[in-house]
Amino acid sequence: MSTNDDLPVAVLGAGIAGLVAALELQRNGYPVRVFEAAPVIAGLGGTHHDDDGFTYDMGAHFITNRLAAAIGVSGECRLVHRYGETVHLDGRYVDYPNGLLKQPRFVASALKARVSTPEGDPTTAAGRFRRDYGTALADTVALPLVEAWSGAPADELAASVADKIPTSIAHTMLLNALARATNRAISVGYCWAQPMTASVFHVYPEHGVATLCERIAEQLPGVIQVSSPVQAVIVHDGQVQAVRVHDEEIPVRAVVSTAPINVLPRLVEGSDRLDRYRRFRYRPMVLVNLKLRGRNLLSDVVVWLPTGFPFFRLTEATQSMPWLAPEDKTMVLCDIGAEVGDEHWTMDDDALGEYCVDHLEGIIPGVRERYLGCRVVRTPIAYPVYLAEYEEDRLALKESTGIDGLLSVGRHGEFSHNLMEDVYWTTIDRVHRWIADQKAGELLAIEAEERAAAVGDDEANPVVASGTRDMPRA
Amino acid sequence: MAGVAVDTGSGERLLLEHVGCPICGRTDGEPIGVGEDFEYRTAPDTFLAMRCRDCTVLYLDPRPAPDEMGRIYPDEYHAFDFTESEFGVIHKVRSRLEARRLLKCIGDVPPDARVIDVGCGDGFHLDLLRRYGRSTWSLEGVDLDPRAAAAARRRGLTVHEGTVEALGLPEAAYDVAFMIQTIEHVADPATVLRAVSRLLKPGGRLIVVTDNTGSPDFRVFRRRHWGGYHFPRHFSLFNDRSIRKLAGRTGLEVVGVETIVSPVNWVYSIRNLLDDYGAPEGLVSHFTLSSPAALSVFTVFDTAFTMAGKGALIRAELRRPA
Ligand SMILES: Cc1cc2nc3c(=O)[nH]c(=O)nc-3n(C[C@H](O)[C@H](O)[C@H](O)COP(=O)(O)OP(=O)(O)OC[C@H]3O[C@@H](n4cnc5c(N)ncnc54)[C@H](O)[C@@H]3O)c2cc1C
Ligand SMILES: [Zn+2]
What is the pLDDT of residue A56? Predict the structure, then answer.
């Protein structure tokens, strides 16, 4: 058996997950090659600038000072002073969470939910939200939003959907109060892998969120190949052997995939261990960015719309990042949950713009006179749908893919609703678990070699033929 | 003025470099503190203090590249000119206190002992040894910053300018070495300790004094404002466990590790917090090295913690094996 110690690790995808994985491997002395299907890097973390002076991320992106510092782009970031979310209910804006808590019907049912102790933990999103928020608030606000967002009934979704929604109302209120007092947008709910504290607040790169991926890529010279989709991951005896790119087989030591987990089984040749992930579904999304005259047209940066609109969320990113649009203009992003090929998905861009404007009249008076045009992005894989039925397989993925030398990381690779900072820390963690395994393996090999040497040449173990490779500096 | 911090850091962003744990090299640290150069505002960048999951040492990652040293240590940096006229009474009190501590550390040495202070700054400690120690001792300093070395020479002290690793000082020649608030500044603490160890006679001792991350001031302010971070100038920060581990890695024996009193990190943590949240300059200026009230209050305060083994500074006595 030959050694594959000097072979590169192939990284599939140059979004933030793939880039961070590659940098982390490189820092630890492993040769890497990154293959990106698209002609540009950054994936969902990309930025587009148009001729009218507007800057768009994929959707709207908010990041933290901690992520910017970790990547080393904080010097190009500006402070975000404002961030807030409201719910639009029965034709009125209601603050989250304070405003909602002032409505007697919600308070009563929330209190009732608190005192009654149901047996065991709820397994579905519907049960979990009703327990945490009370039936009234869950049925009027939380569940309709979750359903619009995921495109599945709440009683078929896993309870873990709620893991990514700030449930400690006291903590949220404290951080919001501190944000007002310090005039900076303290980050609530944008990272779960690390503590949420008053020292973690929103900042944003001068030139858009793509700066993050660009900075990491600069540290990987000669490593990234764009327009190079990985066509196959070749597995033999449960162990990764090679990848196929541009019809050529490239032997590799391991593969770090950031591809959607339902696509990965189609790429793997020589193993069916990942086949159970073929059934996993992502929620497609039609993102309509309206360019409008004026500023501060919404009551807050993010407005949630549980019912009555084709979009479930509006975002006016210029309230946080004023430099994303020309001075007297703004953007309102309308998020429409869709299915590929449905009515919204197939509508042409201009018609979609008009359609959103029509529906916004009740929220932004005079919106039609303000309307300047739109930019539409359709993504078939915006959100992982946490069906309760997936839960066991989804959690297993956090441990391993079941194939030696194949890691699946990133938002789609973990099938987890992770934002950029979570993707950053969890990817580093996953890569290091692999590195630790490699080192443990090398130690075992060296021990075996020593034992073999002690026993005598004829019994030498062929597996340890070359147990030495340069390890990172101690 | 709230929130000026990130908006107005001065000038161009710094050139940064990624590093791993200064003791074991691991690169998957845990982010603990996020902050800025609250004291000197030399750069617009935000910095991250990471903690090694094995060693518990804290390290700045990413950190300013070697070419940026001139920028992050501006001319008005306090270690360059800590003169009597500028700090008056405080200086006197601090001098007495320090002299006592230093002499206790030196302990029993031969009359012709050779003592070296690595990272001597403007020569504050050497000057105390000259004034309060034995006149037969021979005292030398090392500092890599020409401005610091010049300040120490003006006091009539012998100073080698450069890094201790590269200076080619005589090996196995010194009885005692000091590194007082130095180790946290150096790029590679293990290399520096090995170099200092070679200078020591067999059985010679090295006294390391540095900020203690096992202290209550760290606990309270670690997320952002802790004075000991001194962003972005403190590259590695230690506690009892990590300083022992570092010593072990460099072949030095640990004679003892204890904590000592210092009000400075308490005072600067509060200063940084006030400054960060836009408090008026008049209030902020009450929390610096030149404010007797704050320093005295927190000296008393920290004395209580030191008695419980959790003082703001840590002092490790290390020995080159005989
Ligand atoms: C609408 C929306 C809003 C969001 N808002 C925020 C926000 O405000 N803040 C925040 O922090 N995060 C936000 N996120 C999440 C954030 O965008 C993602 O977590 C992050 O960008 C995911 O990075 P990734 O590398 O895991 O995946 P991706 O960025 O999707 O990268 C995967 C890459 O792999 C490539 N690829 C796929 N298959 C192959 C193949 N076979 N061969 C080669 N390459 C392949 C793709 O082309 C892609 O470039 C948002 C996401 C969405 C959808
Ligand atoms: Zn370590």
Answer: 94
Tally of structural domains, chain B: 1
Beta strands in A206-299 (DSSP E): 224-225, 230-236, 239-245, 248-251, 254-257, 268-269, 282-293
- When scoring B48, B72, B226 by the number of chain A Cβ atoms within 10 A, the one with the most, hence best to mutate, is B48
Alpha-carbon gap, residue B171 to B98, rounded angstroms: 28
B26 assigned to some structural domain = no
Q: Any idea which architecture A4-47+61-78+206-274+401-433 has in CATH?
A: 3-Layer(bba) Sandwich (3.50)
Backbone angles phi, psi at A400, to 5 degrees: -165, 165
Cβ–ligand 1 distance for A333 under 6 Å, the answer no
Please, are residues B60 and B48 in contact by the beta-carbon 8 Å criterion? yes
Q: Is the CB of residue A417 below 6 angstroms from any atom belonging to ligand 1?
A: no
Determine the residue of A41, A44, A316 to mutate for testing ligand 1's pocket, defined as the one with the most ligand atoms within 8 A of the Cβ atom.
A44
Binding site membership of A411 for ligand 1 (Cβ less than 6 Å): yes
CATH code: domain of residue B177: 3.40.50.150
Q: For the domain with range A281-385, which CATH number is right: 3.40.50.2000, 3.40.50.720, 3.90.660.20, 3.30.565.10?
A: 3.90.660.20
Q: Give the residue numbers spanning the domain of B232.
A: 75-319
> Directed axis angle between helix B264-276 and helix B292-307, to 10°?
120
Mean pLDDT calculated for residue range B131-157? 94
Structure tokens at A295: 């500023």
Q: How far is B308 from chain A (nearest CA, A)?
A: 29
**pLDDT digits over B209-251, tens only?**
999 999 999 999 999 999 999 999 999 999 999 999 999 999 9
Strands across the sheet containing A239-245? A248-251, A239-245, A230-236, A268-269
Q: Is A8 in the pocket of ligand 1 (CB under 6 A)?
A: no
| Rounded (10°) angle between helices A16-27 and A210-218 | 30
B119 domain-assigned:
yes
Which has more confidence, B96 or A166? B96
Q: Tell me if chain A has a CB within 8 Å of the CB of B18.
A: yes
Q: Which residue of B has its CA nearest to A215?
A: B16
Per-residue model confidence (pLDDT) at position B6: 38
B9 contacts on A by Cβ (under 8 Å): 75
B45 touches chain A (CB under 8 A): yes
B192 three-state secondary structure: helix
Residues of A within 8 A of B25 (CB-CB) are: 472-474
pLDDT of residue B81: 55
Q: Is residue B308 part of a domain?
A: yes
Q: Distances from the Cα of A356 to the Cαs of A98, A287, A376, in angstroms?
A: 29, 11, 11
Encoding tokens for residue A185? 């947008």
pTM over cut 0.90: yes
Domain map (residue ranges) of chain A: 4-47+61-78+206-274+401-433, 97-184, 281-385
Fold assignment, A97-184: protoporphyrinogen ix oxidase, domain 3 (1.10.3110)
What whole-number distance in Å separates Cα of residue B184 and Cα of residue A371?
A: 57
Report the residue count for chain B: 322
In chain A, which stretches have pLDDT less than 50?
Answer: 1-2, 459-474
Residues of A with CB below 8 A from B26's CB?
Answer: 432
Q: Which two tokens stand for residue A128?
A: 């979990």
Nearest CA in chain A to B12: A75
Asked if the model's pLDDT at residue B3 lies above 70, the reply is no
Please list every residue in chain B whose beta carbon sits closer than 8 Å to the beta carbon of residue A23.
18
Q: What is the pLDDT of residue A167?
A: 60
B3 vs A66, A69, A81: nearest CB: A81
What tokens were used for B148? 């610091």
Structure tokens at B38: 């609250």
Answer yes or no: is B8 within a domain. no
Two tokens, residue B172:
């196995």
Query: Is A148 near ligand 1, meaning CB less than 6 Å away?
Result: no
